[in-house]
Each structure stands twice: as C-alpha cells, then as structure tokens.
Amino acid sequence: MKDVLERVERKLIIMGDVYGAINYLGWTIVLGVYMLLYVLIYAYEIKVNYGIIMGIFWSLGMAFIIYLNAVVWKKIKQLRLESARIKVREFWGWVVGLVLWFLIPMVIHEDWSLALGFLLFIIGGNLGLALSFKDYRSTPPVITSLLAIPLVTGVSFDFTWAIAVLFANVGYAISAMLYLLSSFSLPR
Known about the structure:
By secondary structure, the protein is mostly helical. It has helices at 2-43, 50-80, 92-107, 113-133, 140-152, 157-184. The protein has one domain (2-181). The chain has six helices and no strands.
C-alpha cells in the first residue's frame, strides 16, 4: 500500500511540474506572437491602429491562457481533489504588480514608463508566486525582468517594449524548462 501511495504522490508532483511548465510555455507563446506582431508592424511600417490590434491580440492571448489553464487545472483537480483549491493570497504579487504597472506611467511621464510598469508587473507576480509556493522555478522572469530595467529606461518607445517583452519571455522559457526538468528528477 505504501508503494502505491508513493507512486501516486510522484505522479501528482510530476503533474504539478508539467502544469507549471504548460503555464509558462503558454505565456512564452503569447509573448512570442506579440513580439512577432510588434516586429512586423514596426519593421515593415505597416499602417494599422496599434491600439485596436493590441486590444484584439491581448484579448485573444488572455483567452488562450485562461483556456489552457482551465483544461490543465481541471485534470489536476480530478486527481488532487481538496489540495487543488486556488487561494487568493497566493496571487498577491500579481495584484501588486498590476497596481505598479498602472501607477508608474502616471508618476513617470516618459516613453519607457509603460514598459517599466510591465516589468514590475512581471517581477511582482512571479516573485509573489515564488514566495507563496516556496518555489524557485518562478524566479527566472524576476531575474530577467530586473536585468531589463536599466535597458528600458531612457530608450525610445519603439525599443522599450521589445526589450521588456523579450527579457520577460526568456525568463518564462527558463521557468518552463526548470519545471520540465524537475518532473524528470524525481526518484522512481
């Protein structure tokens, strides 16, 4: 019986690791497609209403992330039952980051302030996850976003978003890799 319970526990841990990887990979895809649109619009000087295009893109991107997480979370809930409840206190960092994302451009009236707010959002959210879940695998986006801050301040608007999104995206890719690697490192 103990052997069976240990195997089930390993499978649950692996599933949690894969869920973490899928979440970060979903964001990597969304940020990557964003960068593709960004480069196409600016490199080829495509005349579009940037606000409308980005509004549509982010709406679809968020719908994709919500759908992706709902599908995976449903499977985890089936296996974990009680322990799969989401607690609001575990996501305090995202709330703090979101507030900073909106406040920074109100306080600092520079082209780069919106990108700085975005980086602080990524830092706050992922740091909050790392501290709440005591999980180092959420920290790469924090580190890469911190590295991007000096690069976005003082740069023209065209490059601030590219720098911010690329650095955050690298962090998300590293987190996904760490989650996947940890799923293979459990003793059999």
